[in-house]
UniProtKB/TrEMBL annotation:
Organism: Halomonas organivorans
Source species, domain of life: Bacteria
Domain HIT intervals: 36-105
GO molecular function, one term: hydrolase activity
Keyword vocabulary terms for this entry: Hydrolase
InterPro entries: HIT-like, HIT-like_sf, HIT_Hint
Name of the featured protein: Diadenosine tetraphosphate (Ap4A) HIT family hydrolase
C-alpha cells in the first residue's frame, strides 16, 4: 500500500525489520526487552475492528506467529501481546518477550525506567536474528 505511513512516534522509537503480508514489523529501540511492533499497512485504522474480518484474522495470526518464534528463538518466561494506542492512535500491536527479573517484571514495560537504545552493532545483530526468525515461519510466507 503506497499511501501507508507509520505514525512518526513509532518511527522515532523503533527500527524497521521487514514487511509481513499485512503488517510492517518494527523493533523497539530498547535493549532491555525483545520488543516488536506490528503495524497493519492500512491508513486511518485506529481499532482492530476498523479492519475487515480477514485482516483482523491476519493481524492476530501474524502477532501469534511472530510471538511464538520470538519466544522459541530468544527464550523467555512470558509473551505480552497488546494494543494500547493511548499515545499513538494508529493501530499497532506490541509483541514483547518478558523474563522474570527484567526491569519491569512483573508489571508492564510502559513507563518503567529509561530505554536503553541499541548501538549500531547490536541493532544489526538483532535485526539479522529477527529476519532469520521471520523467514523461518512458513505460515507468514503464504498469502
Amino acid at each position: 500500500m503506497s499511501d501507508f505511513e507509520p505514525d512518526s512516534r513509532l518511527v522515532e522509537d523503533s527500527y524497521p525489520v521487514t514487511e509481513l503480508p499485512l503488517c510492517q514489523l518494527r523493533l523497539m529501540n530498547d535493549t532491555r526487552y525483545p520488543w516488536l511492533v506490528l503495524i497493519p499497512r492500512r491508513q486511518d485504522v485506529v481499532e482492530v475492528f476498523d479492519l475487515d474480518d480477514d485482516a483482523q484474522q491476519r493481524l492476530w495470526q501474524e502477532a501469534g506467529l511472530v510471538g511464538r518464534a520470538l519466544k522459541e528463538t530468544l527464550g523467555g518466561d512470558k509473551l505480552n501481546i497488546a494494543t494500547l494506542g493511548n499515545m499513538v492512535p494508529q493501530l499497532h500491536v506490541h509483541v514483547i518477550l518478558r523474563r522474570q527479573g527484567d526491569d519491569a517484571w512483573p508489571g508492564p514495560v510502559w513507563g518503567q525506567g529509561t530505554a536503553e537504545p541499541y548501538d549500531l552493532d547490536a541493532l544489526a545483530a538483532m535485526r539479522d536474528r529477527l529476519l532469520a526468525m521471520v523467514e523461518g515461519i512458513d505460515a507468514l510466507q503464504q498469502d
